[in-house]
Design goal:
There is one protein chain. This protein is an alpha/beta fold. Helix content is 24%, strand content 18%. Strands 1-2-5-6-7-8-9-10 form an 8-stranded mixed β-sheet.
Length: 237
């Protein structure tokens, strides 16, 4: 478990590390860059750099943290990656079920597997588990329906990096939308009108809106103000 600078959470928990790129938002993956750095530093969990690896010794770590935290699950991977076994996914859910005092935020770009496992009754959705999908452009709006059809109590979208207009998306039964621009080397443009479109859509549908950052090569300089205001709204359970 690690503290994090990700604005919409407090800690990260990585019982699985490693991933493979599957969509446009993956092109400049920060986790892949971080894994390369950690391998160079001799971190034993990244010996194989970004190969998908389950760390079973970390599966129950949240149970030892007694103060309630908001925890982003697998910031260095995707829980529903095809190389992660059903058994490991179920064990992660069991820990989240037991650690009811924490709030767990799970994010995937592979909602078809999420939906399939949910339909089979393999996932138990305690109220403290928030489930999200990444929707970086309108090429991936089908992910929203896969999420919407699960039994998760809180459902959210991460539109980061936002790479195009999403003004026509349907956010019925979605509880939270995070928007952010890409940061770091080779970061791609995020237009202000794309952000405003999502903010107005959230306001119209009474969905919590969180603006994470403008991004760019220097995200500290670009900041996270939208028309002079921060938007740090969270869903109500």
């Amino acid at each position: 478990m690690n503290k994090t600078k990700i604005q919409w959470t407090e800690m990260t928990w990585n019982p699985i590390t490693g991933c493979t790129k599957i969509s446009d938002g993956c092109v400049n993956c920060y986790a892949a860059r971080m894994a390369k750095r950690l391998k160079a530093m001799g971190n034993p969990r990244y010996t194989n750099e970004f190969a998908v690896t389950a760390h079973e010794d970390l599966l129950e770590v949240p149970l030892g943290i007694k103060q309630p935290k908001m925890i982003f699950v697998n910031s260095m991977s995707d829980l529903f990656h095809e190389d992660v076994s059903d058994d490991i996914i179920i064990k992660v859910f069991e820990t989240m079920n037991k650690a009811h005092w924490h709030t767990f935020q799970v994010l995937t770009k592979r909602p078809k597997r999420l939906h399939a496992m949910d339909d089979l009754g393999l996932l138990r959705w305690s109220p403290n588990i928030w489930m999200g999908v990444t929707v970086e452009s309108d090429k991936y709006i089908d992910r929203i329906n896969e999420l919407r059809n699960t039994k998760a109590n809180i459902k959210f979208l991460s539109c980061e990096p936002l790479l195009g207009s999403l003004k026509s998306i349907d956010i019925e039964n979605i509880d939270w939308v995070i928007v952010g621009g890409e940061s770091g080397p080779k970061s791609r443009e995020m237009k202000k009108e794309w952000v405003i479109e999502i903010k107005e859509l959230c306001e119209k549908n009474e969905v919590a809106f969180f603006f994470k950052q403008w991004g760019g090569t220097n995200k500290k300089k670009s900041g996270r103000l939208l028309d002079g205001q921060t938007y740090d709204y969270y869903p109500t359970q």
